[in-house]
């Protein structure tokens, strides 16, 4: 169980979620600045903090931007981030986040 990516008891975030939020903080992405392409965010996360596939990181980013997936939206997304009916999100080159 030690080596698994289980949610932390303190905040409920998995390591990939925490790494995405930290990378977005390092990029200066707050609610008051312009959106950046999701591919840029995913690239920074993979390059610096999370050396795994880009699909896993992008799926975690999409989930944090969906108002129906999590209790609170942690990422402000712009573009097609999927729907509650099961529609998939658009490719990361078409979506933006902050």
TrEMBL record:
This is DNA gyrase subunit A. Pfam families: DNA_topoisoIV. GO terms for molecular function: ATP binding; DNA binding; DNA topoisomerase type II (double strand cut, ATP-hydrolyzing) activity. It catalyses: ATP-dependent breakage, passage and rejoining of double-stranded DNA. PROSITE patterns: TOPO_IIA. PANTHER family: DNA GYRASE SUBUNIT A, CHLOROPLASTIC_MITOCHONDRIAL (PTHR43493:SF5), DNA GYRASE/TOPOISOMERASE SUBUNIT A (PTHR43493). It comes from the Bacteria. Keywords: DNA-binding, Isomerase, Topoisomerase. Belongs to the type II topoisomerase GyrA/ParC subunit family. The active site is at 94 (o-(5'-phospho-dna)-tyrosine intermediate). GO terms for biological process: DNA topological change. GO terms for cellular component: cytoplasm; DNA topoisomerase type II (double strand cut, ATP-hydrolyzing) complex. Transmembrane segments: none annotated.
């Amino acid at each position: 169980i030690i080596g698994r990516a289980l949610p932390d008891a303190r905040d409920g975030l998995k390591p990939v979620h925490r790494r995405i939020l930290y990378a977005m903080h390092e990029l200066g992405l707050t609610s008051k600045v312009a959106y950046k392409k999701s591919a840029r965010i995913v690239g920074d996360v993979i390059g610096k903090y999370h050396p795994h596939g880009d699909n896993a990181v992008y799926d975690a980013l999409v989930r944090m931007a969906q108002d129906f997936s999590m209790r609170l939206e942690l990422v402000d997304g712009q573009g097609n981030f999927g729907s509650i009916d099961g529609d998939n999100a658009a490719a990361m080159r078409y979506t933006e986040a902050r």
